[in-house]
Description:
Layout: H1 12-33, H2 39-58, H3 63-87, H4 157-162, H5 167-178, H6 181-187, H7 194-206, H8 208-222, H9 239-244, H10 256-267, H11 271-282, H12 286-305, H13 311-331, H14 343-348, H15 351-356, H16 359-364, H17 389-393
Amino acid sequence: MGNRTFIRTSNPEADNRKTTTMERQDLSTSAASSSPMTAEDAAALKEKFQQMYMELIATGLTPNDAVAEALTRLYATTASTANTGSSAAPPTQPPTLQAAPVITTVQPPPAPPLPVVAATPVPVVAVAPSPVGVVAVPTTAPSAALVPPPRPPALTLALLQSNDLSLSNMQTLVYETFSHSDHLNVSCFPGHSRHDIQQGLALLASHPVLANTMSNALQSWVNQPWSNSKKWTQPTDLHQFWVVLEHPLLFDPEYRQVVGGMAKLMYFLDDGMKAAVLARWAGYSEVDLHRLLDVFHQFITLALVGAELKMDMLFAVCDLLRLLHEINEKSRKFCEFSAFYNDAVNSELNLLTDYANSGVFLKHRPTTHQTTRQLSELSFCDFPFILDPASKSLYR
Length: 396
């Protein structure tokens, strides 16, 4: 059998018309996709994002994971909607093979005319920088000003005992309450005694889902900028700390970031607010003061022997120990001075290196003129009550 040669015949005019039709379709698609988003679309996207976010938080995801998953789902939803809209368009008439004028150049379709809008001044909104882990979403309307998140209803002991809310609604309430300082101060067990707060926190901690939600919310709370502490100048601003300090899981190693972050926020309070903390703790019983002492000692130990050593949090907790030491020395003696010694500090730390960072060393060193230090640059010499006599002898 001889070789066969297959020759493809082509019609230049038909090919040109096919190319022209495809170009028109591309231009129509690009023109449709470039239309600007309306205010109604932005409001719908915001509402859909918030709904997805709260549903994911309710499943126990961390805030960052919930934001990422919500954005992924939102993108997939909008992309599928766009594809559906484009597929619903009437099909383009296929080119005919009969003789027709060949179009060599294609002009893009004219842009749609802009709608006539009455001259209304557009308000200029100053957008504050978002804290870490928070994703900005469009406002509900172009003229809406940026406001703090709405205050949730009060979380009370009676509400927890009544079981009136569904689990998903209770998760939402718990997260919104414990993730924001203003909500903690106003909506978290308002007007409750310490005993009632302890009961309410115990109920939340005993429920695995709500305990996980509360932990995620507190992680978000302690990650706020420390400069916010300078804004808390009223006694009512300290209610957030009174609540969290009663948390029954502060001894849990998983809560070490909450303890360290809370201590850092308290470290940057002004002197008047620290005096209020000192006065409140001075009224605690010996059992309560011992509990605080043990919580702070455990954090220092875990920080020194663990893989994550953050000196700013470490010294912030030492500063809270300083308040307890002052109560023990001046107000009421609730323990022996040796109870403030920390074994991890005295056994694990390189005290000679620590001394090089101390204020005493810097003060007597003629080559330095440093007058202020960052929190992470402090030394255990600044908190000598933590050091035992053997460690102190190394500084001589």
